[in-house]
Amino acid sequence: MSDTRWLTEREQEVWRDFMAAFLGLTDQLARQLQRDSAMPHAYYEILVSLSEAPDRTLRMSELAGLRGSSRSRLSHAVARLEEAGWVMRRECPTDKRGSFAVLTDRGFAALEAAAPGHVAEVREKLFDKLTPEQIEQLGEISKAILSGVDTSATTCCPDLTGGDR
Amino acid sequence: MSDTRWLTEREQEVWRDFMAAFLGLTDQLARQLQRDSAMPHAYYEILVSLSEAPDRTLRMSELAGLRGSSRSRLSHAVARLEEAGWVMRRECPTDKRGSFAVLTDRGFAALEAAAPGHVAEVREKLFDKLTPEQIEQLGEISKAILSGVDTSATTCCPDLTGGDR
DNA sequence: GCCTACTTGTTGAGAGTTCAACAAGTACAC
DNA sequence: GTGTACTTGTTGAACTCTCAACAAGTAGGC
User: Fold this and answer.
1) Nearest CA to CA, how far is B133 from chain A (Å)?
2) Which domains does chain B have, with CATH numbers?
């Protein structure tokens, strides 16, 4: 198609440090949560989203959108969270296809118990390592990257079977 | 233990944007590689590490160290890469426990075929979104985060059974 | 030599994610 | 109403990763 615009030496270096730093960071956060609270990071974030929603309740697809997760992934995850007694499903009265996920009191308690350790890890491993200027810079950089990430790609699986028959 | 130092509003915002941006970015890179080259991102990086090693050969544990991967994970991955014909195992003559992973010609060709698409995605989704100053800042920030990430944690599983008997 | 401690790499089971396929319901034209 | 297209959420299989357990080999004391 077009000849490749390879990375410069410096870009390569930044890219590798960036990946190593971020993968290492997320890895440690995930380990901390799994070790101390027996939940994967993705499940923690589902609980957070629910805890902030009105009535601690969200439609499955809204929750998937918020978390940038596929419907399939969320469905499996909520099934596990339901087994743990942290989330309940409730049907939607106005749309019989739909279903709500509701954070239970036990789920909220589990989240409250997990939060301090998680926040401490984020502080120690991220914010304590950066100057106030760098924190601002990271915010700007993140926003710039976000502008190019199509969040829809994760959530939906466009079925194009009807388009080119 | 100690009372929690919660995140400030601004820190929270940066944290969420950061996670969303990074998870979205890695997700898209992984999808691009899987879609266009039928390999997970982690496998791509294994091939890269091997391609840069003398004789395209590395001890399993060195490779695990380079990639910040556990020995178990690497062993499974190399098994898959061997099935694909991209990597071969060779035994180590001086240490009969050890084994080498060697990138095959087919593996090198697969890497060459995958690289342009991957680099284009990294460019488009990351470097094209950032100013030269931001790229420098990201490099510094990554180094700072890296300083607090203990890369050993991933690789080894310290067996402390003998310590406190 | 022998014995204990450690290292290397593999294995199998369990857990989370992805993908494609699916049932059930909704929306809207006709 | 009927029919077609789309949406919602779930399911099962395949795949990757993690964890614990393991066999085999090395290192160093004695």
Assistant:
1) 10
2) 10-114 (1.10.10.10)
